[in-house]
Amino acid sequence: MPVAFDEMSGVDGQIRPAYQQLSAWLSEVRPDVLDYRRREAELLFRRIGITFAVYGEADAQERLIPFDVIPRILSGPEWRTLQRGLEQRVKAINAYIKDIYGKRECMRAGVVPEDLVFQNPAFRPEMNGQKVPHDIYVHIAGIDVVRVDADTFYVLEDNARTPSGVSYMLENREIMLRLFPELFSRHRVAPVENYPDELLATLQSVAPNGAPTEPNAVLLTPGVFNSAYYEHSFLADKIGIELVEGRDLFVKGEMVYMRTTQGPKRVDVIYRRIDDDFLDPLAFRPDSALGVPGLMAAYQAGNVTLANAVGTGVADDKAVYSYMPDIVKFFLGEEPILKNVPTWRCREEEHLTYVLDNIEQLVVKEVHGSGGYGMLIGPTSDKATINVFRSKLKATPKNFIAQPTLALSTCPTYVDAGVAPRHVDLRPFVLTGRDKIRIVPGGLTRVAMKAGSLVVNSSQGGGTKDTWVLDG
After folding, report:
1. Are 459 and 117 contacting, i.e. CB atoms less than 8 angstroms apart?
2. Run of H or E including 349
3. Cα 243 to chain center, whole Å?
4. Is 344-404 in CATH node 3.30.1490.270?
5. Which of 136, 126, 55, 85 is nearest to 432 (CA)?
6. Which of 109, 157, 203, 332 has fewest C-beta within 10 Å?
7. Closest CA to 234 of 225, 226, 244, 243
């Protein structure tokens, strides 16, 4: 594997400008102080109640995501490049989804194969020809970005359904402000605290035509047993909107209403954290007790906005990801600002042959996988595991893609042995409203807490860091 780029030390061991103050501070602070503040942060997170459930585990309700007390830092120019690339990417994703449920010009032009769309489990025939308010499908996107050198950021994954993690971005900042005021005083850090205001402004801006001047938005959750329920309740509280379950809403005359002690109240925008399948038992799974009967009828009548729209999953599986550079060029007429990781599509015979011949050096991923599951990291896997994946590839090649094993950049991280480099990625959150695209500076940095590990997902033992974007 190639040597990873160290975001603090660079390739020559010289401290990079954005990290100079942090490096000086680390040389001054005693290890026992870092350890004490790490334990204090854990206590605060436990008191607040931030837990992450992993389905199928007995201790799921008690798990805390490890929090690293050393921030990741990006310079202003680095962030501005990222921001431009993220805006471009999300514009292209929205244009692509509108097209495949509409005129399908990209398929006629051969940009994306038809079978990749129509055989995609996330494709929703109910959305064919369906107009959505203001032609916006992905109102909240989480774009996973990795870095391999001083100048190059790659998009690793597009999350266009119900991306999670923003509560950790906000709580991480709050904890850091409380525990490390002296470190903040050495930097001009761009704020992220305005994210709830930006999200509310985005949601209200995409209300259907004819909605009140101040549209009523709600956050629809599957309920307390969902792994991300903490985030749902946290965001509803921060935004200042009602947190509702399916049973709190009903449809009458193709309008959605919320049950309140003062009587029914019309709902204009639903920030839904429920998957498509469970949204409406009359349209999708009839056994769903989580959704709202008749919701799709109200949606198709144009009387309510769903954020994100139904059917956005067609844009974020890993096979479609491999076509994103072409999608950007086709819809925007621009070269992609953010690169894709080179990707072999195992559905293509030539690609499959290459992957089978080089599987020990590659990362193999399930097209519809997530959370770090269903993935092979060739260089760190034993022969038995590799042979299992080899058999899977031969049996159902269309279910897999493969990529080179990237040396994800590293950041200084406080671990049991002291300060050491650990691999990181970044999930910025992109909000698309009627009037503009909003991105708070930074995002959720996820960190692989185990030495040498490239898997940053919280479900696989990864942790999180505060992400500082320097003003200027």
Report:
1. no
2. helix 349-358
3. 21
4. yes
5. 136
6. 109
7. 243
The pTM score is 0.93
Collapsing DSSP to helix, strand or coil, 445 comes out as: strand
Digitized pLDDT (tens) for each residue of the chain, 472 residues in all:
568 999 999 888 899 999 999 999 999 998 899 999 999 999 998 888 776 655 455 444 556 788 999 999 999 999 999 999 999 999 999 999 999 999 999 999 999 999 999 999 999 999 999 999 999 999 999 999 999 998 899 999 999 999 999 999 999 999 999 999 999 999 999 999 999 999 999 999 999 998 888 999 999 999 998 888 989 999 999 999 999 999 999 999 999 999 999 999 999 999 999 999 999 999 999 999 999 999 999 999 999 999 999 999 999 888 899 999 999 999 999 999 999 999 999 999 999 999 999 999 999 998 876 655 678 988 888 999 999 999 999 999 999 999 998 889 999 999 988 999 999 999 999 999 998 999 999 999 999 988 888 878 776 678 999 999 998 7
Pairwise CA distance, residues 53 & 230, whole Å: 10
Q: How far apart are CA 432 and CA 445, in angstroms?
A: 21
Contact 376, 344 (CB under 8 A): no
Euclidean distance between CA atoms 192 and 372, whole angstroms:
27
